[in-house]
Task: inverse folding
């Protein structure tokens, strides 16, 4: 039977395809107008939202907070005075309790005896100072003794060897300590043994600093008089802003300055690079999230928008009830601390018990045994 001839065109070989592609290579101009418009729209929206939130924070710090403080002092001055007095009295009593705890732990005394000793120290300041000095010397001597003992346990004495040996801190036990805890371990080890381990060469990521440095260099290249002739007043202002932003590592400000350099004083526009607009938009959105978080925190403060709140009588009553509740809690805390100190005073002034020896009946067999 006769075979049918294949009339399909021959399949090109790989080297023929490469030659055809190479021959047909050409540059295609892309229309980035729509992409740039979309990026500009997102940038403008983020910029407007950030400006609105910044104005709210500015109003809170410059108007609401000072006005609320003035209003609350005028309306509830007597309650605030009582609150401050209670806080001061509670701090004084708690400081006394702290001193009692310190003396009890230092000299192994009961709370009552520590309270008695505290009264003696208050009436004899010179003797108390000498006692503190002696105690510190004893603790220092004890610490040095513990350090010598720890050094002998960790680094036992060996025969001297002239050959170079590795540092004892390079073994596996010390290498298991993570880098973020190494500095705390150095302080602890020095306190215990008197030997401070060497610092580690920890390399931290420098991507953020690298980005800031590159932005600053781009701005300098665009503003330097050697490249663009005499610098204008607007260029001088941008130059000083760039130096301040670089000193404070403000990446967002550097992006903004770079956009103003490329688009003139009007900022970014139709001639700005799409990548620059997108980078600046990302920085704006990051700042926007941080500002929103700050606003959520300050909204819990009663000073937020207090001019509108004071028009409602329930707001004023709520502030009054809150202050009265805090004063009641302070009075209860003060009474508890005073009762505790009074109980310690009674125990300290209580006369010591005299143990009397009991007269037991004489055993008639004692003389026979002994």
Result:
């Amino acid at each position: 039977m006769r075979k049918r001839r294949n009339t399909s065109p021959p399949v090109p070989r790989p080297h023929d395809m490469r030659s055809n592609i190479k021959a047909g290579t050409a540059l295609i101009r892309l229309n980035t107008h729509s992409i740039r418009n979309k990026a500009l729209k997102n940038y403008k929206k983020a910029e407007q939202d950030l400006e609105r939130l910044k104005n709210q924070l500015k109003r809170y710090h410059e108007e609401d907070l000072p006005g609320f403080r003035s209003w609350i002092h005028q309306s509830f001055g007597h309650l605030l005075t009582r609150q401050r007095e209670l806080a001061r009295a509670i701090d004084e009593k708690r400081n006394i309790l702290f001193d009692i705890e310190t003396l009890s732990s230092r000299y192994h005394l009961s709370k009552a005896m520590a309270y008695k000793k505290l009264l003696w120290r208050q009436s004899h300041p010179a003797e108390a100072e000498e006692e503190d000095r002696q105690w510190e010397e004893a603790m220092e001597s004890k610490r040095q003794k513990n350090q010598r003992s720890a050094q002998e346990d960790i680094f036992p004495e060996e025969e001297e060897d002239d050959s170079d040996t590795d540092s004892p801190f390079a073994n596996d036990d010390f290498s298991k300590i993570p880098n973020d805890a190494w500095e705390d371990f150095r302080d602890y080890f020095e306190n215990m043994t008197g030997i401070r381990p060497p610092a580690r060469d920890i390399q931290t990521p420098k991507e953020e600093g690298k980005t800031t440095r590159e932005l600053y260099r781009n701005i300098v290249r665009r503003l330097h008089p050697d490249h663009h002739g005499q610098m204008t007043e607007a260029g001088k202002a941008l130059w000083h802003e760039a130096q301040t932003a670089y000193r404070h590592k403000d990446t967002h400000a550097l992006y903004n300055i770079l956009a103003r350099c490329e688009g003139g004083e009007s900022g970014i526009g139709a001639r700005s690079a799409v990548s620059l607009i997108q980078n600046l938009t990302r920085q704006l959105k990051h700042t926007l999230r941080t500002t929103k978080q700050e606003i959520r925190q300050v909204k819990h403060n009663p000073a937020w928008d207090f001019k509108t709140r004071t028009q409602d009588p329930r707001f004023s009553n709520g502030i009054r009830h809150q202050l009265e509740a805090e004063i009641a809690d302070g009075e209860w805390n003060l009474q508890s601390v005073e009762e505790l100190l009074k109980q310690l005073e009674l125990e300290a002034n209580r006369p010591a018990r005299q143990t009397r020896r009991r007269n037991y009946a004489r055993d008639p067999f004692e003389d026979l045994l002994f």
The radius of gyration is 40 Å. DSSP finds 15 helices and no strands in the chain.
